[in-house]
Recover the amino acids of this structure.
């Protein structure tokens, strides 16, 4: 990202706390108000990782609608082996709906969660 007169000495801003695909999806969302097909078309663990990164970015940059979209997507894909990680993410980024979905999932699946 070029700094132009914004006081950046090197002319670039490094963003190291998210995957490049998540950053691309964030920019796409900002310009197009929807998620790119690259996120919608990915399945399984890879999609969950991207959506988790995107939720963290949405929280960091205060993009509430995107944050809600990510919360909803993660709520729909909860599994016994991912719910604890998802709950931790929900608490870290103040996602009450996602947190509640995780708690309900844990309560209904306590035998499956290790």
């Amino acid at each position: 990202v070029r700094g132009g007169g914004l006081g950046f000495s090197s002319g670039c801003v490094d963003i190291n706390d998210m995957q490049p695909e998540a950053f691309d999806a964030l920019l796409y969302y900002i310009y197009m108000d929807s998620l790119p097909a690259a996120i919608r078309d990915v399945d399984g663990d890879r999609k969950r990782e991207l959506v988790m990164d995107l939720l963290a970015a949405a929280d960091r940059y205060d993009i509430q609608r995107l944050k809600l979209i990510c919360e909803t997507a993660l709520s729909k894909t909860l599994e016994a082996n991912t719910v604890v990680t998802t709950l931790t993410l929900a608490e870290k980024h103040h996602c009450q709906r996602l947190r509640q979905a995780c708690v309900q999932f844990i309560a209904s699946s306590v035998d499956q969660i290790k």
Notes: Confidence is low (pLDDT under 50) at residues 1-5. The chain has six helices and no strands. The radius of gyration is 16 Å. The CA atoms of residues 56 and 93 lie 7 Å apart.
